[in-house]
From TrEMBL, chain A:
Its main location: membrane. The keyword Membrane applies. The lineage of its organism: Bacteria, Bacillati, Actinomycetota, Actinomycetes, Bifidobacteriales. Keywords: Cell membrane, Membrane, Transmembrane, Transmembrane helix, Transport. Signal peptide: none annotated. It is a multi-pass membrane protein. It is found in: Cell membrane. One of its GO terms (biological process) is transmembrane transport. GO terms for cellular component: plasma membrane. The chain crosses the membrane at residues 21-44, 85-111, 123-145, 165-189, 268-288. Belongs to the binding-protein-dependent transport system permease family. This is ABC transporter permease subunit.
Length: 303, 333
């Protein structure tokens, strides 16, 4: 067990028991204190969401509601169409997951396992593109979507209508083959031996069969991690849906919650209820899959 | 960029074997994939040609997406930045006039000052908190794993949820933070309503919300610190700080570089909380660069000017990335 010496490096178990005990106690105090700082705001939010309006003002600090009520949730769902936002967000988040898993693994596979001239260059272009701040391409991407030919009332030259603006596609497509997904899957495919594909290649299997039958099944755990991370970022995405979705019926939970903050900024109860509802799916997903998520982050060194 | 490959040497994943050429050097990510294992096939032209064709087929759709939603927008942004364009009217050519205007725009300099202030607070604090918590939890026990979950939980909350939660926590009269400060006899400030404290409040919020990710990255990096080195240093009488500084830091310097670069790049793009909570106020104290770009582009519909601003931001981020890369390369060689 190397449990001891990290807390008080220098004090070896047995050589200096007092110092060692102090170290262990300090470790527990620090760990508990930080846990309180990270978890308490969330528990307080949860507590507030169940307090009636009067109690929020009278008894703001308590973590246990005296007379718990669901009225904040009812009010949140009736003043803001959260149910509708939920469906919208699920669609764009899942759409993003499907596209990124499919396209990210295709490109990642080609960059990891297939030999062709320009492979290094293609990869460098992907890496470099990760350095471009998203705000740079935001306005032109908006214009590209708006002028997409032959959709949303546009003619062949891309004029006349709103294009893909105000559709789910406007949120899904720009991030459908994200550089992160390509990078992540490339890293993952590189960790699978080349020999498997080479054997099949000699046996006359086509490249697509090798990808689909041999490598993709072996990449299941990588796909799962990428899917979880993509879902989380899709669910939590704020600025882009805010820009491309103007129709109230199309909004996502994050945009809806932000609007709620602006319009009902003093109604803390319903506001906190809305926050809880918005966080719940990702929180549950995290609690059930945290080991994979943690591995995925440690593996690629990025979110 | 070179640091990324150094990160997790695939040990957490179901690896049958590592890539033949493990990326131990700083030659860039691609060196890891040099096909030394396939030399036997290099004479086999038919197979290679076949692979080449397949590769471009695999890349066709992702490549199309890259062109339509990254490459084209990047070039268009550059072109739009040279025009006066409001979406409803056709663009008017201005040349470099937008860029000249930026230099004399007092709001731009306010945004720069605010963003630099934010970055100067956020990056060191984020680094200290994430590395500190990683060192604290760098032990292989069940208890440490439970605490890891607690520490990581804020990452799950979106920027909007973080903002609404902290909006309540930071409430000057009823908020949790000022109540806790009150126990220690400190009269807490009005936070989001005070131009001196609003940006600091956003820094605290974002460190709280984001440090968990970097903590996990550091935990991955700390696994690579050789235990015998640590042990040897201890036997030589080094204290905890000396071990940290002379053994741990050099071993995790690629991770340190990666996290610092990402923190800086992220800090310069801070937007969400400033938009949701303060709308740039009070007294423009939280107008950040991205907030100002958003305001010019989608508020005032000055797409050309906003694009020019975004390229100034790009230049800033690019320079920081280059400086960081140069420093790391020098350390490596």
């Amino acid at each position: 067990m190397n449990e001891h010496y990290i807390a008080v490096a220098g004090a070896r178990p047995g050589t200096n028991t007092v110092r060692h005990t102090v170290g262990v106690v300090l470790w527990w105090i620090a760990a508990c204190l930080i846990s309180v700082m990270t978890v308490a705001p969330l528990l307080w939010t949860l507590a507030t969401s169940f307090k009636p309006a009067g109690e929020i003002l009278r008894n703001a600090l308590s973590f246990i509601p005296q007379s718990p009520t669901f009225s904040n949730y009812v009010q949140a769902f009736t003043t803001v169409p959260f149910a509708r936002y939920f469906v919208n967000t699920l669609i764009v988040a899942f759409g993003g997951v499907v596209c990124n898993l499919f396209l990210g693994s295709m490109a990642g596979y080609a960059l990891a396992k297939l030999e062709f001239r320009g492979r290094h260059a293609v990869f460098m272009v992907y890496l470099a593109s990760m350095m471009i701040p998203s705000i740079v391409t935001m306005i032109p991407t908006f214009l590209v979507l708006r002028h997409m030919p032959l959709v949303g009332g546009n003619d062949i030259t891309g004029d006349g209508g709103m294009g893909l603006i105000n559709t789910y596609w406007a949120v899904i497509l720009p991030g459908a083959a994200g550089a992160f997904a390509v990078f992540f899957m490339k890293q993952f495919f590189e960790s699978i031996p080349d020999e498997l594909g080479e054997a099949a290649r000699v046996d006359g299997a086509s490249e697509f069969q090798i990808f689909l039958r041999i490598y993709l099944p072996l990449a299941r755990s990588g796909l799962a991690v990428l899917g979880l991370l993509t879902f989380q970022s899709g669910w939590n995405n704020f600025l882009w849906p805010l820009i491309v979705l103007n129709d109230p019926d199309m909004m996502t939970v994050q945009v809806g919650l932000a609007g709620f903050t602006n319009n009902y900024s003093t109604d803390y109860g319903p506001l906190m209820a809305g926050t809880v509802v918005t966080m719940l799916p990702v929180l549950l997903l995290f609690l059930f899959s945290q080991r994979w998520i943690v591995q995925g982050i440690a593996h690629t060194g990025g979110k | 960029m070179t640091a990324i490959n150094e990160e997790g040497p695939d040990k957490d994943l179901p690896t049958k074997r590592r890539p033949l050429v493990t990326p131990k050097t700083h030659h860039g990510p691609a060196s890891a994939t040099m096909p030394s294992s396939r030399i036997g096939y290099s004479g086999c032209n038919g197979l290679l040609k076949h692979q080449r064709r397949a590769a471009w087929l695999f890349l066709a759709v992702p490549g199309l997406f890259f062109i339509v939603f990254t490459a084209v927008p990047f070039v268009v942004a550059l072109a739009v930045s040279l025009t006066d364009y409001s979406i409803v009217e056709a663009p008017k050519w201005l040349g470099l006039q937008n860029y000249a205007e930026i230099v004399h725009d007092p709001y731009f300099w306010t945004a720069i000052r605010n963003t630099v202030y934010y970055t100067a607070l956020f990056v060191p604090l984020g680094l200290i908190v994430s590395l500190g918590t990683a060192l604290l939890l760098n032990r292989n026990t069940a208890v440490a794993k439970v605490f890891r979950t607690f520490f990581y939980i804020p990452v799950v909350s979106s920027s909007v949820a973080t903002a609404t939660i902290w909006y309540w926590v930071l409430n000057p009269q009823k908020g949790l933070l000022n109540a806790v400060l009150g126990w220690f006899g400190i009269h807490g400030p009005a936070w989001l309503y005070d131009s001196h404290w609003a940006m600091i409040a956003i820094v605290i919020m974002n460190v709280w919300a984001g440090f968990g990710t970097n903590m996990i990255i550091f935990l991955g990096g700390l696994q690579g610190v050789p235990n015998n080195l640590r042990e040897a240093a201890r036997l030589d009488g080094a204290n905890a700080f000396q071990i940290f500084w002379h053994v741990v830091v050099p071993s995790i310097s690629p991770t340190l570089f990666l996290v610092t670069t990402q923190l800086i790049i992220g800090a310069f793009q801070v937007f969400d909380q400033a938009y949701i909570l303060t709308k740039g106020g009070p007294g423009n104290s939280t107008v950040t660069i991205v907030y100002y770009i958003y305001d010019r582009g989608f508020g005032a519909l000055r797409m050309g000017y906003a694009s020019a601003l975004s390229f100034v931001l790009f230049a800033i981020i690019f320079v920081f990335s280059l400086i960081n890369m140069r420093i790391t390369n020098r350390e490596a060689s």
